[in-house]
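Objective 1b of the project was to move from sequence-level analysis to a structural picture of ligand recognition. The entry below was assembled by the postdoctoral researcher (A.K.) and checked by the PI before modelling. It contains the amino acid sequence of the target and the SMILES of the bound compound, S-adenosylmethionine.
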Amino acid sequence: MRKEAPEERELPAYGEEVFAFAHPAQTDRLDALAGSCDPATTGDLARWDLPADARCLEIGAGAGTLALWLARRHPEGEVTATDTDLRFLTGLRHPALRVLRHDVRTDGFPPGTFDLVVARSVLCHLPERAALPGRMASWLKPGGRLYIEDPSFFPASSSPDPVVRRLGTAVTTTLATTLGSDVSAWARSFPAPLRGLGLVEVGMRVHCPTLTATNAAGRAWALSIADLLPAMARTGVLAEADGAEALTHLRRPGFVDTAHAMVAMWGVRPPAQRPDRTTHRPKQTAQQPGQGPA
Ligand SMILES: C[S@@+](CC[C@H](N)C(=O)[O-])C[C@H]1O[C@@H](n2cnc3c(N)ncnc32)[C@H](O)[C@@H]1O
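Corresponding predicted holo structure:
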């Protein structure tokens, strides 16, 4: 009998128990997350010229702020915003925007469909993450760009603040045991997951958001921890009273620190090569991402 690999254990999906979408605080949490990340992400995306009629895909679009930004930037194009749960996306309105229920692990797109494929804070939560960049790259047109961004909590471990150090460990451990997330080594390994896919112009960017009691990053952190506290207490990672005290610490006026880094990596599918007319010898071509699993 085949032995079940640890990553194949049945874990509840993102939004079911941990970060439950039915919980009223989720809208605020997703908005705060997006608010803290959007300036750096859109700053990256704005540097690259896409065709006016670009076809873009955002995987796991959440509250849809990035997809809407892309639609406004490419009104003659088409932006597909996907998620496994569409409740925060269905209210978005833009003529260039379409919303699609789609699971990046199991649902496909035809090879060579998109000029841009984006996923932020999605792959880190999926145990199948290692296989997904190749899958997503296969959906790119020649010349199309893959952009993946995820958090890594490595800055928390060097914080001078013992509460932040403790919370960083508690968040990393709890997300790993409840969802199968990796918010530590995965994004810290960027851009290695794009190597070997045949992409060119591979690059990366790191941004460590400043957390305060009131800014978007601080609110996102506090709301995420508040959501995780019952699971932390249940698994013995952090006692309930310690968790409540830590939250008070994060919300006190004057609190300022950094706890996680948002790490982005990108690469371009090589443009189609013109046939070489100077020689009859067949040219050697690298394996194209479109030849990967779809
Ligand atoms: C942390 S939120 C990030 C939202 C958005 N990308 C952002 O950065 O603002 C993760 C999102 O990924 C979605 N998601 C989780 N698993 C998914 C899957 N297998 N396929 C597509 N989306 C998924 C969740 O429903 C959620 O909306």
